[in-house]
Amino acid sequence: MLLFKILSVSISIKLAIYLYQNVFTHLMFNLLKKQKIISLTTDFGVQTRGIGIMHGTIMKLCPDAKVIDLMHGIPDFDLITGARALETVYDLPIGCHVCVIDPGVGTERRGIIIQTTRGDYLIGPDNGVLLPATKFLNGIKKIVKITNTKYMNNPVSPIFHGRDVFAPAAAHLLNGVNIKEFGSELKEEELVKAPYDEASLKEDSINTIKATIIDVNKFGSFHLNINHETFDTFLTRNERKLGDKLILLFRKKKLLVTIANTFGEVARGKELIMKDDYGRVEVAINQGSFIARHKVKVGDKVTIKA
User: Fold this and answer.
1) Does 26 map to a domain?
2) In 3D, which of 185, 214, 193 has the Cα closest to residue 126?
3) What is the pTM (predicted TM-score) of this model?
4) What is the dihedral of CA 168, 170, 172, 175, to 10 degrees?
5) Fewer beta carbons under 10 A from the terminal one: N or C of the chain?
6) Is the pLDDT of residue 208 over 60?
7) Contacts of 178 (CB under 8 A, 6+ apart)
8) Burial class (CB in 10 A: 0-12, 13-18, 19+), 116
Protein backbone atom coordinates (compact mmCIF):
# COMPACT_ATOMS: atom_id res chain seq x y z
CA MET A 1 0.00 0.00 0.00
CA LEU A 2 2.81 2.43 0.89
CA LEU A 3 4.55 1.66 -2.39
CA PHE A 4 1.30 2.33 -4.26
CA LYS A 5 0.95 5.71 -2.54
CA ILE A 6 4.54 6.63 -3.35
CA LEU A 7 4.01 5.67 -7.02
CA SER A 8 0.76 7.66 -7.14
CA VAL A 9 2.46 10.76 -5.72
CA SER A 10 5.35 10.36 -8.16
CA ILE A 11 2.99 10.03 -11.13
CA SER A 12 0.99 13.06 -9.95
CA ILE A 13 4.13 15.18 -9.71
CA LYS A 14 5.29 14.11 -13.16
CA LEU A 15 1.84 14.82 -14.59
CA ALA A 16 1.81 18.28 -13.01
CA ILE A 17 5.26 19.02 -14.42
CA TYR A 18 4.17 17.79 -17.86
CA LEU A 19 1.04 19.94 -17.80
CA TYR A 20 3.02 23.00 -16.76
CA GLN A 21 5.79 22.50 -19.32
CA ASN A 22 3.50 21.63 -22.23
CA VAL A 23 -0.16 22.53 -21.86
CA PHE A 24 0.27 25.75 -19.87
CA THR A 25 3.19 26.90 -22.03
CA HIS A 26 1.19 26.16 -25.19
CA LEU A 27 -1.77 28.15 -23.88
CA MET A 28 0.42 31.11 -22.95
CA PHE A 29 2.12 31.01 -26.35
CA ASN A 30 -1.22 31.15 -28.12
CA LEU A 31 -2.41 33.93 -25.82
CA LEU A 32 0.64 36.02 -26.62
CA LYS A 33 0.36 35.21 -30.31
CA LYS A 34 -3.21 36.52 -30.31
CA GLN A 35 -2.34 39.82 -28.66
CA LYS A 36 -3.98 42.68 -30.53
CA ILE A 37 -1.26 45.31 -30.83
CA ILE A 38 -1.58 48.77 -32.36
CA SER A 39 1.23 51.32 -32.24
CA LEU A 40 0.84 55.03 -32.92
CA THR A 41 3.52 57.36 -34.30
CA THR A 42 2.58 60.98 -35.04
CA ASP A 43 3.77 64.55 -35.33
CA PHE A 44 0.98 65.59 -32.95
CA GLY A 45 2.16 67.48 -29.89
CA VAL A 46 2.57 65.26 -26.84
CA GLN A 47 -0.36 66.98 -25.10
CA THR A 48 -2.70 67.08 -28.09
CA ARG A 49 -6.16 65.59 -27.67
CA GLY A 50 -5.80 63.97 -31.10
CA ILE A 51 -3.73 61.16 -29.58
CA GLY A 52 -6.36 60.39 -26.96
CA ILE A 53 -9.12 60.52 -29.56
CA MET A 54 -7.29 57.98 -31.73
CA HIS A 55 -7.00 55.74 -28.67
CA GLY A 56 -10.73 56.13 -28.11
CA THR A 57 -11.57 55.35 -31.74
CA ILE A 58 -9.60 52.12 -31.50
CA MET A 59 -11.17 51.15 -28.18
CA LYS A 60 -14.69 51.60 -29.55
CA LEU A 61 -13.99 49.30 -32.49
CA CYS A 62 -11.63 46.80 -30.86
CA PRO A 63 -11.94 46.95 -27.05
CA ASP A 64 -9.28 44.29 -26.45
CA ALA A 65 -6.61 46.10 -28.47
CA LYS A 66 -3.40 47.10 -26.71
CA VAL A 67 -2.28 50.53 -27.94
CA ILE A 68 1.40 51.49 -27.72
CA ASP A 69 2.40 55.12 -28.18
CA LEU A 70 5.65 54.59 -30.02
CA MET A 71 6.47 58.26 -30.58
CA HIS A 72 4.62 61.57 -30.67
CA GLY A 73 5.91 65.11 -30.95
CA ILE A 74 7.89 64.38 -34.11
CA PRO A 75 8.83 67.74 -35.72
CA ASP A 76 5.92 69.04 -37.78
CA PHE A 77 5.59 67.41 -41.24
CA ASP A 78 9.03 65.77 -40.85
CA LEU A 79 8.78 62.63 -43.00
CA ILE A 80 12.43 61.69 -42.49
CA THR A 81 12.27 61.65 -38.68
CA GLY A 82 8.85 60.00 -38.80
CA ALA A 83 10.06 57.22 -41.09
CA ARG A 84 13.10 56.66 -38.87
CA ALA A 85 10.87 56.39 -35.78
CA LEU A 86 8.60 53.89 -37.51
CA GLU A 87 11.59 51.70 -38.39
CA THR A 88 11.86 50.78 -34.72
CA VAL A 89 8.52 48.90 -34.67
CA TYR A 90 10.56 45.76 -35.30
CA ASP A 91 11.22 45.82 -31.54
CA LEU A 92 7.44 45.63 -30.87
CA PRO A 93 5.20 42.58 -31.11
CA ILE A 94 3.69 41.87 -34.51
CA GLY A 95 0.72 44.17 -34.96
CA CYS A 96 -0.75 47.18 -36.77
CA HIS A 97 1.48 50.24 -36.81
CA VAL A 98 -0.20 53.56 -37.60
CA CYS A 99 1.92 56.54 -38.66
CA VAL A 100 0.39 60.00 -39.04
CA ILE A 101 2.87 62.49 -40.43
CA ASP A 102 0.58 63.73 -43.13
CA PRO A 103 1.05 67.21 -44.62
CA GLY A 104 -1.08 66.14 -47.61
CA VAL A 105 -4.13 65.11 -45.54
CA GLY A 106 -7.42 65.67 -47.36
CA THR A 107 -5.81 66.01 -50.79
CA GLU A 108 -5.56 63.37 -53.51
CA ARG A 109 -2.79 61.57 -51.65
CA ARG A 110 -3.80 58.00 -50.87
CA GLY A 111 -4.22 56.25 -47.55
CA ILE A 112 -2.57 52.82 -47.68
CA ILE A 113 -2.00 49.59 -45.78
CA ILE A 114 1.26 47.68 -46.27
CA GLN A 115 1.29 44.06 -45.16
CA THR A 116 4.84 42.99 -44.33
CA THR A 117 6.45 39.58 -44.55
CA ARG A 118 6.91 39.48 -40.75
CA GLY A 119 3.13 39.78 -40.40
CA ASP A 120 2.75 43.43 -39.42
CA TYR A 121 0.52 46.02 -41.08
CA LEU A 122 1.82 49.56 -41.66
CA ILE A 123 -1.02 52.05 -42.00
CA GLY A 124 -0.83 55.70 -43.02
CA PRO A 125 -0.50 58.14 -45.92
CA ASP A 126 1.18 57.30 -49.20
CA ASN A 127 3.95 59.87 -48.81
CA GLY A 128 6.91 57.53 -48.32
CA VAL A 129 6.87 57.58 -44.52
CA LEU A 130 5.91 53.89 -44.20
CA LEU A 131 8.48 52.42 -46.58
CA PRO A 132 11.78 52.40 -44.63
CA ALA A 133 10.18 50.30 -41.88
CA THR A 134 9.41 47.52 -44.35
CA LYS A 135 13.12 46.73 -44.62
CA PHE A 136 13.19 46.00 -40.88
CA LEU A 137 10.08 43.78 -41.17
CA ASN A 138 11.41 41.41 -43.83
CA GLY A 139 9.93 43.22 -46.81
CA ILE A 140 6.55 43.85 -48.41
CA LYS A 141 3.90 41.17 -48.96
CA LYS A 142 0.91 43.22 -50.14
CA ILE A 143 -0.19 46.87 -50.46
CA VAL A 144 -3.75 48.19 -50.73
CA LYS A 145 -5.22 51.67 -50.81
CA ILE A 146 -7.89 52.47 -48.23
CA THR A 147 -11.09 53.37 -50.07
CA ASN A 148 -13.85 51.25 -48.51
CA THR A 149 -15.90 53.67 -46.39
CA LYS A 150 -17.43 50.72 -44.52
CA TYR A 151 -14.21 50.59 -42.49
CA MET A 152 -13.91 54.34 -41.86
CA ASN A 153 -15.27 56.60 -39.15
CA ASN A 154 -17.97 58.47 -41.08
CA PRO A 155 -18.28 61.27 -41.92
CA VAL A 156 -14.56 61.45 -42.65
CA SER A 157 -12.90 64.72 -41.71
CA PRO A 158 -10.66 66.08 -44.48
CA ILE A 159 -8.08 67.06 -41.86
CA PHE A 160 -8.08 64.15 -39.36
CA HIS A 161 -7.50 60.89 -41.21
CA GLY A 162 -5.65 59.56 -38.16
CA ARG A 163 -9.00 59.29 -36.36
CA ASP A 164 -11.31 58.58 -39.30
CA VAL A 165 -9.27 56.39 -41.67
CA PHE A 166 -6.03 55.00 -40.21
CA ALA A 167 -7.02 54.13 -36.63
CA PRO A 168 -10.27 52.43 -37.77
CA ALA A 169 -8.34 50.44 -40.39
CA ALA A 170 -5.98 49.13 -37.69
CA ALA A 171 -8.88 48.17 -35.41
CA HIS A 172 -10.78 46.39 -38.18
CA LEU A 173 -7.66 44.44 -39.21
CA LEU A 174 -7.28 43.23 -35.63
CA ASN A 175 -10.94 42.23 -35.67
CA GLY A 176 -10.21 39.90 -38.57
CA VAL A 177 -11.15 41.95 -41.64
CA ASN A 178 -9.06 40.80 -44.60
CA ILE A 179 -6.72 43.41 -46.08
CA LYS A 180 -8.39 42.90 -49.49
CA GLU A 181 -11.62 44.39 -48.11
CA PHE A 182 -10.13 47.87 -47.70
CA GLY A 183 -9.49 48.63 -51.35
CA SER A 184 -7.66 47.68 -54.52
CA GLU A 185 -4.11 46.39 -54.55
CA LEU A 186 -1.13 48.59 -55.39
CA LYS A 187 2.39 47.79 -56.55
CA GLU A 188 5.38 49.12 -54.66
CA GLU A 189 6.57 51.10 -57.66
CA GLU A 190 3.25 52.99 -57.66
CA LEU A 191 3.92 54.43 -54.20
CA VAL A 192 5.54 57.75 -53.39
CA LYS A 193 9.23 57.12 -52.78
CA ALA A 194 10.69 56.89 -49.28
CA PRO A 195 12.13 60.12 -47.83
CA TYR A 196 15.56 58.46 -47.79
CA ASP A 197 17.24 55.41 -49.33
CA GLU A 198 19.54 52.90 -47.72
CA ALA A 199 23.17 53.98 -47.81
CA SER A 200 25.25 51.39 -49.63
CA LEU A 201 28.84 50.57 -50.47
CA LYS A 202 30.02 51.17 -54.03
CA GLU A 203 32.35 48.60 -55.55
CA ASP A 204 34.46 51.33 -57.16
CA SER A 205 34.82 53.30 -53.91
CA ILE A 206 35.03 50.85 -51.02
CA ASN A 207 36.58 53.40 -48.65
CA THR A 208 33.60 55.79 -48.82
CA ILE A 209 29.96 55.78 -47.71
CA LYS A 210 27.64 58.65 -48.63
CA ALA A 211 24.85 58.93 -46.09
CA THR A 212 21.98 61.10 -44.88
CA ILE A 213 21.13 62.24 -41.35
CA ILE A 214 17.72 60.68 -40.62
CA ASP A 215 17.28 61.50 -36.93
CA VAL A 216 18.60 63.72 -34.17
CA ASN A 217 17.99 62.61 -30.58
CA LYS A 218 17.49 64.67 -27.43
CA PHE A 219 21.18 64.41 -26.52
CA GLY A 220 22.26 66.03 -29.78
CA SER A 221 23.56 62.87 -31.44
CA PHE A 222 22.53 62.07 -35.00
CA HIS A 223 21.70 58.83 -36.80
CA LEU A 224 22.53 57.90 -40.39
CA ASN A 225 20.76 55.77 -42.99
CA ILE A 226 23.49 53.14 -42.68
CA ASN A 227 22.45 49.77 -41.28
CA HIS A 228 24.67 47.68 -39.02
CA GLU A 229 25.56 45.11 -41.68
CA THR A 230 26.71 47.77 -44.14
CA PHE A 231 28.78 49.50 -41.46
CA ASP A 232 30.44 46.23 -40.41
CA THR A 233 31.27 45.44 -44.04
CA PHE A 234 32.71 48.92 -44.52
CA LEU A 235 34.97 48.54 -41.48
CA THR A 236 36.10 45.03 -42.49
CA ARG A 237 36.89 46.03 -46.09
CA ASN A 238 38.98 48.93 -44.85
CA GLU A 239 40.62 47.03 -41.98
CA ARG A 240 39.25 49.43 -39.38
CA LYS A 241 38.54 48.36 -35.80
CA LEU A 242 37.41 49.78 -32.47
CA GLY A 243 39.58 52.72 -31.45
CA ASP A 244 40.56 53.60 -35.02
CA LYS A 245 39.53 56.87 -36.69
CA LEU A 246 37.18 57.59 -39.57
CA ILE A 247 36.87 60.85 -41.51
CA LEU A 248 33.51 62.64 -41.60
CA LEU A 249 32.84 65.23 -44.31
CA PHE A 250 29.82 67.49 -43.83
CA ARG A 251 28.93 71.15 -44.35
CA LYS A 252 32.40 71.86 -45.75
CA LYS A 253 33.94 70.44 -42.58
CA LYS A 254 36.38 67.57 -42.15
CA LEU A 255 36.36 65.78 -38.80
CA LEU A 256 38.10 62.75 -37.33
CA VAL A 257 35.86 60.53 -35.18
CA THR A 258 36.70 57.44 -33.16
CA ILE A 259 35.05 54.06 -33.81
CA ALA A 260 33.53 52.90 -30.52
CA ASN A 261 30.97 50.59 -28.96
CA THR A 262 29.67 53.16 -26.50
CA PHE A 263 30.08 56.78 -25.41
CA GLY A 264 32.48 56.21 -22.51
CA GLU A 265 35.13 54.65 -24.74
CA VAL A 266 36.25 58.15 -25.68
CA ALA A 267 37.11 61.08 -23.44
CA ARG A 268 34.37 63.48 -22.39
CA GLY A 269 33.74 66.02 -25.13
CA LYS A 270 35.22 63.85 -27.90
CA GLU A 271 33.40 62.71 -31.05
CA LEU A 272 32.66 59.06 -31.79
CA ILE A 273 30.85 56.87 -34.31
CA MET A 274 29.13 53.62 -33.34
CA LYS A 275 26.27 51.25 -34.08
CA ASP A 276 23.15 52.57 -32.35
CA ASP A 277 20.54 50.51 -30.49
CA TYR A 278 17.97 50.49 -33.34
CA GLY A 279 19.82 49.13 -36.35
CA ARG A 280 21.54 52.31 -37.59
CA VAL A 281 24.82 54.20 -37.17
CA GLU A 282 25.09 57.03 -34.64
CA VAL A 283 27.54 59.94 -34.42
CA ALA A 284 27.83 61.54 -30.99
CA ILE A 285 29.91 63.45 -28.50
CA ASN A 286 30.52 61.81 -25.14
CA GLN A 287 28.41 63.85 -22.70
CA GLY A 288 27.90 66.59 -25.25
CA SER A 289 25.78 67.64 -28.21
CA PHE A 290 27.20 67.03 -31.68
CA ILE A 291 24.54 69.13 -33.41
CA ALA A 292 25.10 72.08 -31.08
CA ARG A 293 28.84 72.04 -31.75
CA HIS A 294 28.76 71.32 -35.47
CA LYS A 295 25.37 72.75 -36.57
CA VAL A 296 24.01 69.78 -38.53
CA LYS A 297 20.36 68.76 -38.95
CA VAL A 298 18.06 66.05 -40.30
CA GLY A 299 18.43 65.76 -44.08
CA ASP A 300 22.05 66.87 -44.19
CA LYS A 301 24.47 64.75 -46.23
CA VAL A 302 27.47 63.14 -44.56
CA THR A 303 30.36 61.33 -46.26
CA ILE A 304 32.36 58.79 -44.27
CA LYS A 305 35.89 57.89 -45.41
CA ALA A 306 38.20 55.24 -44.04
Assistant:
1) no
2) 193
3) 0.87
4) -140
5) N
6) yes
7) none
8) buried
